[in-house]
């Protein structure tokens, strides 16, 4: 048994309730080389686009997280044949654009916003009626942001009060093309509309005032779709003319920068750490966390920069370094939207104050991540002021946090993993009330912690 496994003590399990609390204890330096699992956003899209291409798509490095598996199960309900091969790769035999089958039974999206919103887009331009359901966290999240544009294209929705799941969607074939300016910086909304456009005759255009992750555009191009991107007055205009066919292809999924971020922060704040995180995707619409950590004084070196599956990738060497508090430019937020919880952990160990703003979107993720992290870090001994659109964090000047808990993770994997990282650099460890949600995006998180800190 390696050292960290012993330090992660199981502290509770309710009778009849599948909740596993863990106390993440102070850790020695993180060293050696680790490889984080495949990118979640790219994994979802690989399965979806594979399902829309007639013939066999091969995916290497697919993230086997619960969110991605939910996407896979939904696509299988609509006729795609998805199988895992002996070498660990996945094969998808797609049915083609316009020929998805009517699913029997509801599509259970689990905890996954990306599965829900992208599949709503995909199905909106098919003559399919589908019920979407999800867990307690997903059932609170806003769906009007996709319902509004997809309704303009002709789909009909019966959502739960407040525009939430469970909902029923009646797709339309043929739908009408639209030009839609995104009212919120969201790759999920952009992607939902672009996926609906694939089976909609005519040209659909999404106008994106603030750039968000561009995996949909890059990958659809890889599947042979003509995706037109024009920058007009600083805004991206992304157009697809349907109906469009997808050609199957071979995909290699790079490591997820959102998962790597937990280890980059852990190695930055645990003294004497020197860790290499291999094969990390560094798409400029995703690498904001590494840019901000470097601005704070983190020692992050990019080794062996290369391309994997059309995405920039490098091995990251991260060494412990003193961090300085900074004011984070709100413009960088979309390129690190899922990494703020763990950035808050880094900031709570920095010297001086870190100010974040423009982060209202964090309140509608798997949990209200501003409020959840403010409570969790305060419980662990950090000094935090919660504001409407961000946190003001007074750093400890490199001193370990007191620790404590149990902190409430609200079915949110990123809160659980962020507070696990806080535990590594604390005096008494941090107990998180439930580690189950971690499996949605990073099933081997604890094993890798174990490996790096052994
Ligand atoms: O398109 C995607 O794959 C994602 C987009 C982001 O959501 P929003 O589009 O809601 O910002 C992000 O938070 C999510 O984890 C994945
Ligand atoms: C917000 C996230 O995912 P989703 O929206 O797909 O649930 C996330 O992974 O942090």
UniProtKB/TrEMBL annotation:
Positions contributing to 3-phosphoshikimate binding: 40-41, 45, 186, 188, 338, 365
Protein's UniProt name: 3-phosphoshikimate 1-carboxyvinyltransferase
PROSITE patterns, per database record: EPSP_SYNTHASE_1, EPSP_SYNTHASE_2
The enzyme's E.C. designation: 2.5.1.19
Keywords (A to Z) from UniProt: Amino-acid biosynthesis, Aromatic amino acid biosynthesis, Cytoplasm, Transferase
HAMAP family: EPSP_synth (MF_00210)
Annotated organism of origin: Qipengyuania psychrotolerans
Function: Catalyzes the transfer of the enolpyruvyl moiety of phosphoenolpyruvate (PEP) to the 5-hydroxyl of shikimate-3-phosphate (S3P) to produce enolpyruvyl shikimate-3-phosphate and inorganic phosphate.
Reaction(s) the record says it catalyses: 3-phosphoshikimate + phosphoenolpyruvate = 5-O-(1-carboxyvinyl)-3-phosphoshikimate + phosphate
Superkingdom of this protein's organism: Bacteria
């Amino acid at each position: 048994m390696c050292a960290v496994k012993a330090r992660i003590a199981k502290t509770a399990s309710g009778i009849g309730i599948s909740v596993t609390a863990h106390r993440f204890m102070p850790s020695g330096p993180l060293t050696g080389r680790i490889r984080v699992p495949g990118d979640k956003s790219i994994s979802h899209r690989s399965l979806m686009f594979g399902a829309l291409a007639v013939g066999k798509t091969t995916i290497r490095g697919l993230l086997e997280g619960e969110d991605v598996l939910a996407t896979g199960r939904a696509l299988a309900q609509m006729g795609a044949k998805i199988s895992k091969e002996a070498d660990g790769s996945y094969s998808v035999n797609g049915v083609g654009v316009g020929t998805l089958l009517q699913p029997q039974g509801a599509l259970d999206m689990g905890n996954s916003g990306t599965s829900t919103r992208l599949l709503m887009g995909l199905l909106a331009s098919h003559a399919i009626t589908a019920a979407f359901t999800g867990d307690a966290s997903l059932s609170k999240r806003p769906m009007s942001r996709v319902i509004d544009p997809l309704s303009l294209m002709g789909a009909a929705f019966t959502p739960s009060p407040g525009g939430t799941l469970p909902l029923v969607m009646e797709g339309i074939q043929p739908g009408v093309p639209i030009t839609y300016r995104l009212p919120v910086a969201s790759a999920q909304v952009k992607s939902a509309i672009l996926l609906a456009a694939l089976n909609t005759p005519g040209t659909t255009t999404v106008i994106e005032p603030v750039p968000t992750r561009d995996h949909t555009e890059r990958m659809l191009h890889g599947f042979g779709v003509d995706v037109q991107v024009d920058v007009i007055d600083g805004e991206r205009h992304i157009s697809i003319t349907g109906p469009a066919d997808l050609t199957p292809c071979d995909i290699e999924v790079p490591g997820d920068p959102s998962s790597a971020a937990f280890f980059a922060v852990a190695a930055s704040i645990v003294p004497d750490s020197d860790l290499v995180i291999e094969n990390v995707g560094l798409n400029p619409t995703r690498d904001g966390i590494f840019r901000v950590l470097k601005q704070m004084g983190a020692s992050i070196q990019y080794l062996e920069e290369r391309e994997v599956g059309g995405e920039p990738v490098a091995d990251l060497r991260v060494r412990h370094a003193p961090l300085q508090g900074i004011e984070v430019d709100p413009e960088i937020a979309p390129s690190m939207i899922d990494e703020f919880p763990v950035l808050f952990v880094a900031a709570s160990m920095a010297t001086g104050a870190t100010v974040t703003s423009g982060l209202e979107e964090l309140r509608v993720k798997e949990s209200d991540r501003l409020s959840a992290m403010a409570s969790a870090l305060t419980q662990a001994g950090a000094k935090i002021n919660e504001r409407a659109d961000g946190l003001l964090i007074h750093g400890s000047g490199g001193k370990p946090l007191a620790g404590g808990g149990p902190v409430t993770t609200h079915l949110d994997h990123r809160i659980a993993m962020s507070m696990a990282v806080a535990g590594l650099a604390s005096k008494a460890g941090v107990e998180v009330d439930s580690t189950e949600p971690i499996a949605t995006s990073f099933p081997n998180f604890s094993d890798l912690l174990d490996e790096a800190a052994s």
